[in-house]
Design brief:
4 helices; alpha+beta; Aminopeptidase; 5-stranded mixed sheet; single chain
């Protein structure tokens, strides 16, 4: 298995259907706009030549973590879940984050995502706080 940063149109064409398994309520154009975000980086886990999982991340600095890797999305192809690909990609992200001088890996997971929470718990991530938010009136552009 290998992990590669996905930067080409062809790589993104392969990644978007996997990303949309998480972002299923959004259209393809919305998901492709992630590529335009200045700090968003997309990595793909390949088993031989098959893209099996993707993770969108950014490096951030915040008061409570200084420098950390924020995972925006970590998605294993639906038909391949439960085979260790998520753990493999998460381990790679942790190693990459250390190489980038980060102290933590962090993410947000909905409270009702029992499978996701169980996965992150099994991988040693700790639930220590809450994400709080409010919706803005703007259109997000």
């Amino acid at each position: 298995m290998s992990v590669t940063e996905l930067t080409t149109d062809e790589q993104w064409d392969a990644a978007v259907p996997i990303l949309r398994q998480l972002w299923c309520h959004e259209d393809e154009a919305f998901v492709r706009e992630f590529r335009d975000e200045a700090d968003y980086r997309l990595f793909g886990l390949y088993d031989d030549d098959r893209l099996v999982a993707v993770a969108g991340v950014s490096l951030q600095r915040v008061l409570h973590h200084r420098r950390h890797v924020w995972i925006h999305d970590l998605v294993v192809d639906d038909e391949l879940r439960g085979q260790g690909y998520g753990a493999e990609l998460l381990d790679w992200i942790e190693d990459w984050g250390e190489d980038e001088g980060c102290e933590y890996v962090a993410l947000a997971c909905p409270r009702d995502n029992d499978d996701g929470l169980a996965f992150y718990d099994s991988e040693g991530l700790e639930q220590w706080g809450y994400v709080v938010e409010t919706e803005l009136d703007g259109d997000g552009n």
